[in-house]
From TrEMBL:
Pfam families: OsmC. This is OsmC family protein. Coiled coil: none annotated. It comes from Levilactobacillus tujiorum. Gene3D superfamilies: 3.30.300.20.
Length: 145
């Protein structure tokens, strides 16, 4: 089983967070309307983006072996998040209540073939699986440095 690692450190500026994995750095921030400086996507936008990227990678991997030809696939994603859950309302789930996405194919394939391929992609997409079926998240340790 492969193990992946990432690190997130708060930057003194605003709500910015520097995240990195494999030496690749990304700034995560909030829009100005939420107290940030709008210098990067916020965490929930990154979740949507991760799902979209994972669907793209899964489709690219599966297309050849399933003889599905397409020039381009676009994934549009939208998620509903009720901020009341984030600020402590026990009746509102903290995080997305629902995520929806649509796939647009530029292809010569018909609707039925596209739907069959989309089902295959959805069933094999690791991020879609984690979001749909949950994953155990555990605090491993606390260190004082």
């Amino acid at each position: 089983m492969a193990s992946y690692q990432a690190t997130a450190r708060k930057i003194p500026s605003s709500l910015q967070v520097d995240v990195h994995s494999r030496g690749i750095h990304t700034t995560i921030d909030e829009p100005e309307s939420l107290g940030g400086t709008n210098t990067g996507m916020n965490p929930v936008e990154l979740v949507l983006s991760s799902l979209g990227a994972s669907l793209q990678e899964t489709a690219a991997r599966l297309a050849t072996e399933n003889k599905f030809k397409y020039e381009q696939m676009t994934v549009d994603l939208e998620g509903d998040l009720d901020a009341a859950g984030f600020v402590g309302d026990p009746d509102i789930r903290n995080g997305f209540q629902e995520i929806r996405y649509s796939l647009q194919f530029k292809t010569q394939a018909g609707q039925a073939e596209c739907e069959k391929f989309a089902d295959l992609v959805t069933q094999n997409c690791p991020i879609e699986g984690m979001l749909s079926h949950g994953v155990t998240v555990a605090l491993d340790r606390i260190e004082i440095v």
